[in-house]
């Protein structure tokens, strides 16, 4: 697994945003459920290996009924977005992890992969800017370079 520093942004009780820098191996301390943590690590590694850019993980356990965690990332083109999604599905299927649903894989603008407690959004950059899901779930999100990933809570 790539050893890069990641950011965890967490809304505190008084409404302020706290920031914590950590590395991939600390992910299991941040995600309490063991099966979710294992799957999140696998997904993060696959996204990084697929050259997904601007990877963000948002903890939405207390904000959404649909999932506990959202991965949001982008590809450089429609073809790259489809390739990222296809690679994640293919590699996880070989590891006996089956997705519950896929949407948008033909267009490649916005591909949604449903893995139960974890949803993956793969965006074309223009579509990601338009829908701005990070702002919806983590209003004070800090922008980052393509070499860094952010994990938001």
Structure description:
There is one protein chain. The chain is α/β, with parallel strands linked by helices. The protein is 32% helix and 30% strand. An eight-stranded mixed β-sheet has the order 2-1-8-3-4-7-6-5. Strand 5 (101-103) and strand 6 (110-115) form a beta hairpin. Helix 2 packs across helix 3. Residues 140-148 have low confidence and may be disordered.
Distance, first to last CA: 22 Å
Runs in which pLDDT lies below 50 for 5 or more consecutive residues are: 140-148
For the residues shown, what is the average pLDDT?
A: 78
Order of helices and strands: EEHHEEHEEEHHE
What would the principal axes of the Cα set say about the shape? Answer: globular
Task: Give the biggest sheet.
Answer: 8 strands, mixed
- Strand order in the largest sheet: 2-1-8-3-4-7-6-5
**Proportion of β residues?**
25-35%
Radius of gyration: 14 Å
Q: Class by helix and strand content?
A: alpha/beta
Total of DSSP H or I helical runs spanning 4+ residues: 5
Give the total of beta strands.
Answer: 8
Helix content: 25-40%
Summarize this, please?
This protein is of the alpha/beta class and 153 residues long.
Any chance you could write out the topology, listing elements then pairs?
Layout: E1 5-11, E2 17-23, H1 27-30, H2 34-49, E3 53-59, E4 69-74, H3 78-94, E5 101-103, E6 110-115, E7 118-123, H4 125-131, H5 133-137, E8 149-152
Parallel strand pairs: 1-8, 3-8, 4-7
Antiparallel strand pairs: 1-2, 3-4, 5-6, 6-7
Helix pairs in contact: 2-3
């Amino acid at each position: 697994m790539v050893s890069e520093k990641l950011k965890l942004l967490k809304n505190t009780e008084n409404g302020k945003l706290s920031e914590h820098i950590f590395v991939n191996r600390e992910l299991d301390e941040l995600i309490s459920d063991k099966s979710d943590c294992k799957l999140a690590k696998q997904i993060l590694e696959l996204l990084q290996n697929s050259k997904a850019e601007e990877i963000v993980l948002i903890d939405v356990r207390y904000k959404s009924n649909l999932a506990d965690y959202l991965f949001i990332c982008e590809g450089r083109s429609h073809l790259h977005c489809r390739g990222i999604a296809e690679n994640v599905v293919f590699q996880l299927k070989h590891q006996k992890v089956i997705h519950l649903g896929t949407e948008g894989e033909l267009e490649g603008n916005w591909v949604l992969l449903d893995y139960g407690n974890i949803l993956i959004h793969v965006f074309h950059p223009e579509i990601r800017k338009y829908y701005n899901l990070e702002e919806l779930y983590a209003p004070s999100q800090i922008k980052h370079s393509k070499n860094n990933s952010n994990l938001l809570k």
